[in-house]
């Protein structure tokens, strides 16, 4: 017999899956619209169909390298099975993309959990301005709070007054404390004060916002290194996670940002936002494959609950539904 909690979990999961399905609608419609045209009048998967499919995957921002891997896999299937009908292409694509993501062993998470042996667990959030960084922090804080965790935010993006104000709005919305200083203050000093405050409050999670500048990689690297070094005076192994936020709607530009930030600092996880407003959802597949850094979270809507833990099986299922 199922408990009320199990029914509740099933209801929540169903709601999140429906949000994911809806959030990927534009990407799915764009992709399959092009695919239908590519196979029109064809009964089997031949070289022409594969050439067209390659163009569609690249145009869907899956990325050239990942596209070539997918095409190679499908070519192998076609060669082995001798005759593959175009009506089977959808199923084969789904299987091969799921297989590709499974090889990286990324995107297995199912909830907003954190390691129990790190307290407080420190997340440093990086990314350029405009990608949804502050919004992601606010939504993350809300999700962690719902898990019963005590969360503290740190406004270490001190170069823009708006960034501090915006994070304050999200802190109020999520009902979590925030540590901030005046605009122009030393970001490392804010991070230090935040961790000291979190330790005093016996917090479970600390989320540190950082400045979203990428005009000079050396300056960015120096700044992030300094923030890390100062945080380690309070918690020796902080930060435990460096989360890079990318705007999925920018397609190939998201790849470039991922490349630049991974060169500037050690990024350990990714959040891909704004997938609901774009047909470029394929970027998640390419970024997962190319950077071998786990996509932990995806943004599929404007609501505070529309940040979801990335699960590759659910993502592929929604994309090909």
TrEMBL record:
Membrane topology, from the record: Peripheral membrane protein
CDD domains: FtsY (cd17874)
Job of this protein: Involved in targeting and insertion of nascent membrane proteins into the cytoplasmic membrane. Acts as a receptor for the complex formed by the signal recognition particle (SRP) and the ribosome-nascent chain (RNC).
Summary of subunit composition and partner proteins: Part of the signal recognition particle protein translocation system, which is composed of SRP and FtsY.
Encoding gene per record: ftsY
Name this protein carries in UniProt: Signal recognition particle receptor FtsY
Residues noted as binding GTP in the record, renumbered to the chain: 127-134, 209-213, 273-276
Family: Belongs to the GTP-binding SRP family. FtsY subfamily.
Reactions this protein catalyses: GTP + H2O = GDP + phosphate + H(+)
Keyword Nucleotide-binding: yes
Coiled coil stretches, renumbered: none
Ranges of residues in domain SRP54-type proteins GTP-binding: 294-307
Protein's cellular compartments: Cell membrane; Cytoplasm
Record HAMAP family: FtsY
A GO CC term assigned to this protein in UniProt: cytoplasm
């Amino acid at each position: 017999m199922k408990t009320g909690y199990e029914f509740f979990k099933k209801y929540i999961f169903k709601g999140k899956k429906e949000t994911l399905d809806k959030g990927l609608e534009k990407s799915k419609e764009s992709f399959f619209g092009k695919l239908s045209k590519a196979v029109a009048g064809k009964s089997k998967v031949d070289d022409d169909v594969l050439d067209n499919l390659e163009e569609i995957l690249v145009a869907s921002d899956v990325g050239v390298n990942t596209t070539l891997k997918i095409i190679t896999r499908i070519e192998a299937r076609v060669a082995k099975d001798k005759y593959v009908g175009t009506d089977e292409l959808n199923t084969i694509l789904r299987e091969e993309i799921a297989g590709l993501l499974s090889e990286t062993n990324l995107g297995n998470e199912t909830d907003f959990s954190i390691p129990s042996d790190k307290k407080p667990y420190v997340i440093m959030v990086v990314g350029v301005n405009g990608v949804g960084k502050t919004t992601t922090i606010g939504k993350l804080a809300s999700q962690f709070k719902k898990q019963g965790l005590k969360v503290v935010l740190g406004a270490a993006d001190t170069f823009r007054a708006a960034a501090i104000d915006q994070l304050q709005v999200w802190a109020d919305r999520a009902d979590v404390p925030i540590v901030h200083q005046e605009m122009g203050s030393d970001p490392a000093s804010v991070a230090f004060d935040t961790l000291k405050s979190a330790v005093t409050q016996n917090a479970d999670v600390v989320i540190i916002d950082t400045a979203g500048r990428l005009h000079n990689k050396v300056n960015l690297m120096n700044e992030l290194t300094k923030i890390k070094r100062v945080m380690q005076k309070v918690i020796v192994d902080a930060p435990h996670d460096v989360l890079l936020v990318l705007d999925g709607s920018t397609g190939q530009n998201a790849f470039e940002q991922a490349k630049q930030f991974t060169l500037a600092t050690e990024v350990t996880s990714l959040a891909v936002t704004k997938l609901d407003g774009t047909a470029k959802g394929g970027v998640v597949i390419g970024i997962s494959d190319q950077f071998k850094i786990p996509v932990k979270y995806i943004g599929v809507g404007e609501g505070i609950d529309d940040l979801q833990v990335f699960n590759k099986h659910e993502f592929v299922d929604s994309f090909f539904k």
